[in-house]
Structures are given as C-alpha cells and as structure tokens.
Amino acid sequence: MMILGPLGFTAPWLLLGLAALPVLWFLLRAVPPAPIRRRFPGVALLLGLTDDEQVADRTPWWLLALRMLAVAAAILAFAGPVLNPRAEGGGQGPLLVLTDGSWASARDWTQASARIEAALDQAAAAGRPAALVSLTDPPAGGPVFTAANDVAAGLPGLAPRAWEPSEAEMAAFVDSLPDGGFETLWLSDGLARPGRAQLLEVLMAEGPVTVRESPRLLRAIGPGEQADGALRVPVLRAGPGPAAEAEVAAVGLDPLGVLRELARGPVSFAAGEAQAEAVFDLPPELRNRVARFELVGEQTAGAVSLAGDTLRRREIALIDGGGASREGLELLAPTHYLEQALAPSADLIRGTLADILLADPDAIVMADVARITEGESAGLLDWIEGGGLLVRFAGPRLAASDEGRAAMDPLLPVRLRAGGRSVGGAMSWGEPKTLMPFPEGSPFHGLAVPPDVEVRAQVMAEPDPQLTERTIAALADGTPLVTARAEGAGQIVLFHVTANAEWSSLPLSGLFVQMLERLALASGGAQPEAADLDGTTWVADRVLDAFGALEDAGEMPGVPGARLADPVPGPDLPPGLYRSGDRSLAVNAIAPGRVLEPANWPAGVAIEGDAAPAEMRLQSPLLLIALALLMADILASLWLGGRLSRLRRVAALLVLGVVLGAGLPGMAPPAAAQEPPADSAADRLALRATSEVVLGHVATGDTQVDRVAEAGLRGLGLVLAARTSVEPGAPMAVNLDTDDLAVFSFLYWPVTPDQPAPSPEAYLKLNRFLRTGGLILFDTRDADVADFGAASPAGRRLQALAAPLDIPPIEPIPADHVLTRTFYLLQDFPGRYQGRGIWVEAAPQAEEQAEGMPFRNLNDGVTPVVIGGNDWASAWAVDDAGRPMYPVGRGMAGDRQREIAYRFGVNLIMHVLTGNYKSDQVHVPALLERLGQ
Amino acid sequence: MSHVLPPLLAAARQLASTVQLGAHGRRRAGLGDEFWQYRPAHSGDPARAIDWRRSARADAHFVREREWQAAQSVHLWVDDARSMEFTGDPGRASKADRARLLALALAVLLIRAGERVGLSDAGTPPRAGEGQLVRLATRLTAPPAEADYGMADAEAMQPWSRAVFVSDFLGDPAGVEAALTRASDRGVTGALLQVLDPVEEAFPFRGRTIFESMTGALAHETRKAGDLRERYLSRLAERKDRLADLARRTGWQYQCHHTGDAPTVALLWLYHALERMTR
Q1: Which of B168, B197, B220 has its CB closest to that of A46?
Q2: What class is the B6-21+71-278 domain?
C-alpha cells in the first residue's frame, strides 16, 4: 500500500493511467460529434448553401474536461484509495483480550466483537497466543493463552450479561492472572466500578494495555416509582455532559393482550447534570397496565426498568343503592366511609353496574343495593367467577327487599331472614352488641377488636349448615357480622351492617380499614420491606438479557427473600421478574440508588475510541462520481447534437411528475367534509324530547289506553302552559325496549292487566332512569279498590311489573309531603276517580316533626315513583278542540274534581322539574327569621 | 369500394358542412331554380310563362323569371409526390392528408353547388353529381407517386374551365410555371394553394445535420444547421413571392396554408377564390 498523507492506495501502479489522459484529450478533440440524419422536404431549398465556418463543431472544451474527469475518477477508483488507512500495529508476546461483558457493553457489542475479531486475526497472523476473558464470566483458574485462531472460534459464544462484574469477582480474577508478561486489549463498557483500578495496575505491570471504549455517554433508567398519582422514572447517564434529550416509553399489554407502547415521556438532561426524571401522568387504567419502562433507542438491560407489582393500584367500583344524592347528607351516605378508607390506596370508579363491569375492576363494593336485574346479575356472576371480589353491605333497602329470602341468592353469601333486627334502640330490649374475637381461619384473624365498636342493627342470616363456615366475623351473641362465600375464582362478602354509621360504629373505627385491607381491598403496592421478605423464596419468572429483552427464566434455583432485600443483580440474581405466590417483584439491572460514573483511566493507557477516524474506502464513491460524470456527458452530447429537444420534454415531464407526485398529497384538499350524523330514529327522538319539556307515557300496547294517556298528557300540558312557566311540548309515547329514557324526566305509566313485561334491558334503563332523578307515575286506573293488593288484575300486574324495579320503600303520601304544596296546596289527588291516597317514597324514619314547624324536613330529592289508581289521564284528557274527553263526577262537584286533578298534575310536574327547591322554599321564612336575629 | 372511402369522404363532408353557401347565382335572369324577378309580359311570351297569381293582383300580365344558373368545370390537382408525406410532428396530419382533405371538401361544396368537378389529369374528367365524389375520393387515396416533388399536369383541362392546384410547390418551379402558362393559354383560371408544414416554415434545427429529401435522393450536409436558418427562410419567401407573382400574371389566385392551422380557413379561401372567378 502506498500512503500519501491521509490517503492510501491499494493498487498504486494503476495511477500511472493518469499519464494517459493528455493523449485521450487529443484523441477526443479530433473527433467531432456525429451528424443527425433528418428527412426534410425543404432540402430542395437548401441545396447549394454552404456553412460559414468550416471549423465550427469541434467537441467543446468543457465536454472534454467532463470526460477527462470521468476517466480520472475511474482510474483513481481502481487504484483503491483508502482514507485514514490503519497502520498495522504489531506487538509481541501473548495477547489478553478483556471485555467487561456487562449490560453496559451490550450497546456497542457489535463494534466490540468486530474489534476483538480484528485483534485476534492480527494475533493469529503474527503467531501470537491469545486469551479472551469476559469479566462477568471469568474462567475459573485464570486465562489460558492458546492459539489465536482457536480463541477466535469461541468468539460467537461470547455475550454480555445483564449484570456488572462485582468487586469480589474482579479481585479473584486478579489473583488468577498468570505471570510472564502479556499485552492487554481491554474493551471497557465505560463505567467506573470498584476493583477496576487494581486490575488495571496488575495488567500494566504485565505489559502494555490498550483500552477501547466508546466516548458516547451511556444512559440507563432506574426503577420507576409512584408518587402523587404520577409515575416517576429516574434517567441516569454516565457522567455530566451537555444538555440532551431522551425519551422513555412505558410499555405494557393493551386491552387485547398485545405488548405495545402505552405512553412516551420526554426527558431532558440539563447541561452538567447526570440525572433526569421522566414523569408519566397516566389514567389509572393505563397505569396499571405498565409492565416496564424503556429508554427509547437504547438496547441494553440498563435501559429497561421492569415494574412488577409496585406500580399497580387497585380499581374498586363503588355502587350505592341511591339516597346518596341527598345533598348535605354526605356523612350519612352509604359509601362515605368506604371512600375515605379506600381512596388513599385504590382508584375508585363509579357508574352503573353495566358500565363498571366493562371496566373489569378488581373489586366491586355495593352499599345497600337490593335490586340487581337479571341481566346485570348474570354479568356480575361471570365477573366474580373470573376472580372478582364482590363486597356487599346491608342496609334498609336490603333489609326491606326479598333478596335471598326464599332461596340462596347467587349474589349473597348466605340466605337472609326477613327484615332485620334492631338491638339497643329505644323500643328494643338489650344493649348494642359488640364483636366476638375473629376466629382462626378468618381473614381477619389476629386483628384486635376495639371494645367501642357497637352494632345496633343488622340483617340476619337464615340458620344453615354452612352458616358457620361462611361466617368470618360474628357478634358477641354469635350472629354473623361478615359472611363470605367463594364463587368460582372470586368471592362474595356480605357485611351484615351498613357501610355508614347508621347501624353500627364499625365504620368509625380503625378496625374497618384493617378489615378492608385484609380483604385485599386496600392493599397498596409498595416495595416490600426487608422484614417482609425474610424467609420467603422467590422464583425467577422472566429474566432480562444484556440487550434488554425479557426471556423465559427456564430452570433457575429459587432466590431467598433476603437476597432480594438488596437487589444488586449478579450471577445469582439476574435482573428479571421474580414471583412468590401472588406477589411479583422486579429486579432491575440498575439497582435503586445506583449512580453511573465514567471510567477513569490513568495516563499511560492507550485509549482508542470511536473518535479515531475510521478507515474509509473511497473506491465506490469515486466510481459513482465517474458514472455520474459519464451520464452528464451523455446528456451534454445529446444537447450539443440537437437531439435533446424531445428528451428534454420527456425529462421535464418526468421531473414535473415527480415534483407533483411528492407535492400533491400535501396539497390535496382535506378529506371530504364529514358526513352528516346519521339521522336515526333515536336521534330524532332525543332531539324532540330535549328541545323542550316533553311529558312521556309508556306505550302499553293497548291502543285505547295509549290514546287516553296521550290526550291526558296533552290536556295537562295545556293547563301547565296556561298557569305556570312550564310549557311542555306534545307528549310522546315511549317504547321501553327501544327508546332512550335518559331524555325524559317524567313518565306516565298506565297499568293494564295484560301488559307485556319489559325486557331485562328495558329494566336496566328504567332503573337507571329512576336512579338519576326520573319520576314514574304508575296508574292502575282502578280507583285502587284493591289497595295494591293482588285482588285487582291491574294491581297484580303492577306488582309483577314493578318487581324488578329498584324502588325504595314507599308509604302512603304523608300530609306534609312536598307534593302537596309544590304549586297548589292540595290534600287529595283525585283523577277520574276520587280514590284513595297515593304512595310515594317513604320518608326517612329519623325525621321527626320539629316543634312549631308545620312540615318535616322530608324528601330531599324527588320521589322516584308515585303510585296510585285514580286514572288521572282520563281526567286530564282533552280532544283536539280542547274539550274534556271524559266526564268526571257530576255537575259542579265534577268540575271541581277535574280542577283538583289538574292541580295534582301541575304539582307533580313542578315536583319533578324543581327537585328539592320547593321543599327548601318551605323553610325560607324560618331561615329569614334566623338571619334577622 | 365504399369501405375504403368513408374516412376521407366523411371528413371532407364534415369540413364542407362548415361552409354552407348554397348555389351561387349568376345575378341575372336565366335558366335556374331560384326566383329572379317578375317582369311585365311582352307579346310573344308563351301563355304558360305568365305567372297568373302575380298577374291577378295587377292589371298587366307578369312573367316570373328565374335566375340563370350555369355549371362550371373545375379541375383539381393534388400533389401526390413523396414530399407531401412529410409532417414535422407525429400528432399532426401530413401535408398530403391536408391537401386531399381540402380538395375533396372543395369538391363536395362545388358539387352541391351544381358544378362539375374532376381531376386535372386525364383519368377523371369533370362530372357533376354525388357519384363523382366517390370517384374523386378513390383517386385521391391512391398510393403516392415515386417522385420527390410533384409536377402539375394541365393536359386534360378543358378550355375556359377552372382549376385548383394544391401542392407544397417546393420542387422545381419551372414545372408549375409551365403548367400555369399552358392553362392560361387555354383560358383556364384558378387557385394555387401552397400547403406547408410549420416545421418547414420555422426551420428549428441545430447542430451537425444531414438533410435528406423524402426518398433520400437529395441530401445536404451542414455542420451548423442553425446558421442556415436565415438563408433558408429567405429562399422560402422568395419561392412564395415567385408563386404569387406567377399567379398574378396568369390571373390566378395564390394562398399559402399551414397544416398547423384550421382547414376551414383554407377551404373558405378556395371557395371564394373560385367564386370570384366565376363572376
């Protein structure tokens, strides 16, 4: 090889060809371009014309120069030019090739192994013996120098490990080094670690040491942790450097079970800082899916941080049976104490059962929910059998319902007796009961029972052979307080008391939280303490390789828990996921608190890095240049010869096409305007029902009844429009199966004996309608002769229809009910019949009539149902001309009755539309009086 | 035979339909179909010549006179030499195509006007009627001659008839001069239509080029075609002047037409040129 400055030539004698260039110049110059033959009838006119200049068309100098350059470039290319040729260095004696072999080596492993191969090839060529040692996997008994060819054959088997060599291992390796002098090539991973200086000292004593190390700063990420609802992932780099950007990706299973990137967070290193932090503020649903963090673009075990269980927060759904909507009564809300106990350690979700089941929470807590429709209960059972935990609390609704009376309710752990019992009240014998110490085998076993926990009321379990084994907490008299039953892979737990302090003081005590924790409701996901790990054995589930990929652990021995307390990875504890029972723990290549520092090499060590200019062969670029020049020559020759005109057009078209092709997608007009939303029947209905106040009546299927109901609501609407500020639109018939009930606030439901029962989905919608403030006026239209007993067909039908509805306890309307005074002052509620009273939601028993106040503070909220039988629709009904359709009563008394019926309707609609405003208005005089004081 | 003709004949008819002029009258009473005037009846007019309907409106008798219409013989010569096959652009019709189209369209117009149309050589004497169109089209679509440049043939022309020569007139002008002189000797007048390709008019050539005639018989080599442009154009202009001068002297009309232009213009000019002469 001939070397000229930074250039070397592998075939220098070919350069002699450059001397032939002047000859070529003269040859090319002598040959003019070939003529073109053209057919042209006008040649007759050309005959005899002579050219002005005889010497005109010689090849122009610049075309010659172009060709010269092309030929010169080709000659140079074939001479094999090399930029920055590497001078072969030769050493003497054995060669020790040493690599750190840690996860940090993984980043540049390809280059490192190429360097090793080159070094071993050179050693083999020079006949030097060599040895190859990885510090993470040092040979027992020290390195043995053998023929470099044999060593090179073992190179493909060499791979970096996911941990770093420990100080003890390096010291042991120092001790095993043979004497006798050798040269060392050390492929460093660039990280400082104890023991490295001692090893270097020994090696330098044996012979020259060359270190190869990439100058690029190594980056890694530490274990992520959860703080303030966000995930924080520390990002480290080996030593301070200039300001830099990086990205951390959170990777996990998506809902389809496919591993994918869930989120990506930017990290910026400030100049001079070696540490930064990526913050992920993810929704809980996403956060719980995060399985690991990865530093984008880095392929080392250090750039992967496994999450394990520590990032997971439980999702718990809270459902209460209604009543919580009463404003100002939060402390009495069934779920208040549950929220307080669970909120710090779990994510609470709310909504309807159907929505919640879609979210697949870890547990569902139901506070005093009595009615669960068939469709819901099937979904709930599936969810429990799949491993869900259902915790139910008793309450007035559950006590009043028939759930689990006649037969075992699949959603209750035990059968319940009718009613409940109340102990320690004014009307009962005995004192409030305390708790019995928790029996062995109960999940609560070992919790101290505070003496001040008292139970005043409970629902009772039907004595049963399995009752004892299902009781996990009992009162002092042996009656069950908490019962549990396994169902499939899940469990159903029933607290026989309320979740608020109404029936017992349990929710007020610390025991309540502890019990919830024992039920794994409130368990958090912090890194276990050392004491927790003592005595446990963990088995590797998946392990990381040095390149950051998770692999099956295969058969690996168990790791004692004590080793995991200080998770510095090593050969006995490779980074990965470890499992013990249900718990899972992650060991990362970067132990918590690890700081990366660059390796520090003393003077006298030759360091080669990526910065040394690499050898670069210039042959192909030069050949490409020569080719490009020849192409340019073709074009130039064509142009000179006048043959380019058509080519030029083609080329221009091509260029234009390419430019347009590239530009068109960008300039394309935005996609066609969005299609107008489908104008479905449901949309039209919702639009009609929400653009003004619309009264709805349930379509019974009986044409006559539906017609009367429609006419009745129309008549009521006319009265409302005339007398009040409510101006309803035309009433609408509502099909419970198909129509969306959420757009209505009032439904009139005439009950006919032969009415088909709505579908389970319709009941779901009805229950949601009732829970969200809707009102249904049931009208049996039989003057309530049977007192809603089974004596009248409509009464029987009403019972059957209303059974799946989530209706609270009802009572005959009390004289001070807000319905009696929302607009008119009323005392009775006639329709076409002057029947008996109507039934509304029962007032809370606790409400006592205050001294001097005409009304109790009742019904803070709208009663969800009004049940009666006075056939109001017939009394309200008017024909198209506005005349009453049906006679009511006789004479003046009849007119009066119709008027009162209208007034009832006005009061009812006012009640629905104003909520508790009217009932609050009652107290305004008293409040004003108090303010005046 | 019809399966050969339709393209050219159809194109010619379509072109002719853009020039609907109808029969051209002689502006004086005579034999014809068109009404010319009513004149008072003289003695000697046959009784059946009297227009009774007109006479009933007046005291005198009137005779209805018709315009005199007489047919002319028109001889067409369309150059069928190889030089007419030239076109400067594959997308453009050749000069021969354009010449044939114009000639046939003119024939359509003339025959509709009642004239007799034929070719100037002896094969197709002037005749009237639609059938003559088919014969003309057949002759015009015959394969081209072998010669580079065409020679006008005035042998078969009837005295005092009309003639139309369509050619590029790039060949030896002596032939045209001789033909025109012979024609004017016989009292034949007509029109010269020179059909040229735009390339022949622009001479957009550069570089070293060998120009050949269509058969290759003539060739001219130049090192710089661009330099020849001025002199070529002046020679072309000189040729046009010579033709125009020749036409003027013999009482003919001369026009130059380019294949790049619409044929309607040339057809209109041809028709009017003939009309001017028949007056």
Answers
A1: B220
A2: alpha beta
